[in-house]
């Protein structure tokens, strides 16, 4: 198959995505507008008839004092990853990005390799037979994904070591997802563990009210987010980032971003953001107060988001990143422990891959990133 690639308009990009069940929220044009420190471009692959058959959002980050760029396609591009002639897709992309001044290309194929059910993971934890997810026999795997990885290696793409935690990539390699398709809400809630169901009931009995917010409520969210950052020792993004996020994402689609707040007696105790593309919904950012945690606002807000995702016709509710550690004394274990309560699945993606177009500059960037 002969494919050619060109810059496409945001309208072409969005029209293509509307014809697909889902794509990453990082592969929509508005995500490029949000990342103001990067230059963004929508690219498209055309077949011999001129029909658009694949798209990608490219973010370009300029090197200091040089007109050379790192080209990044987060959780993309949106192409036929299992095409036996993968080079017919990647060759024109690399040529185009090189012509744009890219010295290195990073991409994250949106391909799931393996899935583990909650019951499988719990059994492994209880038996102490595995220290990491990758040590457990998966409940499902995609054999074509291993062939794809081999084809990428043969074509010169490089995959960095992730240090074992699953956080070596810019985007998480391991995520936790709750399947919604073909299930009733009762069935979804029955999948929760006893603690989750009890916490949801406790929030209801305590009078916790979860509401959908608007742009003006982002300041309330941000105050709780700053409290969370102090508690969990990370650097918070400024309020202006979330205001820009809301403005550009909802301009593209009113449901692209939603804000939820959990109140008790008029006081905000928790807040979250939710992102939607097609049939895929993501829990994006979460924040909570340090007090009144006993009324379980975080469980209440998650259940409301799942119900709303279901009402939107979502096939999956994505709780995003987890570590693959199963050791209970590991600080990252809490990530998977909380999410296991939903009865969903852990999923491993193919991870991020780099192609050095200029090996010297690519090596210099690698060295810089390793010292940060």
Q: How would you describe this structure to a colleague?
A:
By secondary structure, the chain is α+β, with helices and mostly antiparallel strands. The chain has two domains: 4-108 and 353-370, Gcn5-related N-acetyltransferase (GNAT) (Aminopeptidase); 112-349, Aminopeptidase (3-Layer(aba) Sandwich). The chain has helices at 10-18, 29-34, 87-99, 118-127, 143-154, 185-190, 194-206, 218-232, 239-252, 297-311, 333-340, 359-370, and strands spanning 4-7, 39-46, 52-62, 69-73, 102-107, 112-117, 140-141, 174-179, 209-213, 257-264, 267-277, 280-288, 316-321, 345-349, 353-356. The strands form two sheets. Strands 7-6-14-8-13-12-11-10-9 form a nine-stranded mixed sheet, with helices on both faces. A six-stranded mixed sheet has the order 1-2-3-4-5-15, sandwiched between helices. Helix 3 (87-99) links the parallel strand 4 (69-73) and strand 5. Helix 7 packs across helix 10. The longest helix is centred in the middle third of the chain and has 15 residues, at 218-232. The protein is globular, with a radius of gyration of 21 Å. The N and C termini lie far apart (43 Å).
Sum up the structure in keywords:
372 residues; 12 helices; nine-stranded mixed sheet; alpha+beta; 26% strand; six-stranded mixed sheet; Aminopeptidase
Secondary structure: elements and pairs:
Elements: E1 4-7, H1 10-18, H2 29-34, E2 39-46, E3 52-62, E4 69-73, H3 87-99, E5 102-107, E6 112-117, H4 118-127, E7 140-141, H5 143-154, E8 174-179, H6 185-190, H7 194-206, E9 209-213, H8 218-232, H9 239-252, E10 257-264, E11 267-277, E12 280-288, H10 297-311, E13 316-321, H11 333-340, E14 345-349, E15 353-356, H12 359-370
Parallel strand pairs: 4-5, 12-13
Antiparallel strand pairs: 1-2, 2-3, 3-4, 5-15, 6-7, 6-14, 8-13, 8-14, 9-10, 10-11, 11-12
Helix pairs in contact: 7-10
């Amino acid at each position: 198959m002969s494919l050619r690639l060109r810059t496409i308009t945001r309208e072409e990009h969005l029209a293509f995505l509307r014809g697909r069940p889902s794509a990453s929220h990082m592969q929509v044009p508005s995500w490029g507008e949000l990342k103001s420190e990067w230059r963004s471009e929508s690219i498209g692959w055309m077949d011999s008839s001129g029909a658009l058959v694949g798209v990608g959002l490219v973010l370009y980050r300029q090197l200091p004092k040089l007109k050379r760029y790192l080209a990044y396609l987060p959780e993309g591009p949106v192409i036929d990853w299992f095409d036996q002639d993968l080079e017919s897709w990647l060759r024109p992309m690399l040529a185009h990005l090189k012509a744009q001044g890219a010295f290195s290309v990073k991409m994250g194929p949106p391909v799931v390799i393996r899935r583990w059910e909650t019951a499988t993971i719990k059994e492994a934890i209880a038996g102490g037979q595995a220290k990491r997810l990758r040590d457990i026999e998966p409940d499902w795997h995609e054999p074509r994904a291993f062939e794809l990885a081999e084809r990428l290696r043969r074509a010169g793409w490089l995959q960095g070591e992730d240090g074992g935690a699953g956080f070596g990539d810019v985007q998480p390699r391991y995520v936790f997802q709750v399947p919604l398709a073909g299930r009733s809400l009762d069935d979804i809630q029955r999948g929760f563990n006893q603690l989750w169901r009890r916490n949801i009931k406790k929030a209801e009995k305590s009078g916790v009210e979860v509401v959908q917010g608007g742009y003006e409520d982002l300041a309330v969210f941000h105050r709780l987010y700053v409290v969370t950052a102090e508690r969990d020792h990370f650097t918070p993004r400024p309020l202006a980032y979330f205001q820009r996020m809301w403005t550009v994402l909802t301009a593209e689609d009113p449901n692209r971003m939603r804000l939820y707040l959990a109140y008790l007696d008029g006081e905000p105790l928790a807040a979250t953001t939710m992102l939607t593309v097609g049939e895929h919904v993501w829990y994006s950012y979460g924040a909570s107060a340090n007090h009144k945690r006993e009324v379980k606002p975080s469980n209440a807000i998650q259940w409301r988001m799942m119900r709303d995702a279901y009402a939107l016709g979502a096939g999956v509710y994505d709780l995003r990143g987890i570590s693959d550690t199963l050791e209970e004394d590991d600080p990252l274990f809490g990530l998977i422990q909380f999410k296991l309560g939903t009865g969903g699945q852990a999923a491993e993606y193919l991870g991020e891959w780099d192609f050095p177009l200029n090996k010297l500059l690519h090596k210099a960037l690698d060295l810089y990133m390793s010292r940060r």
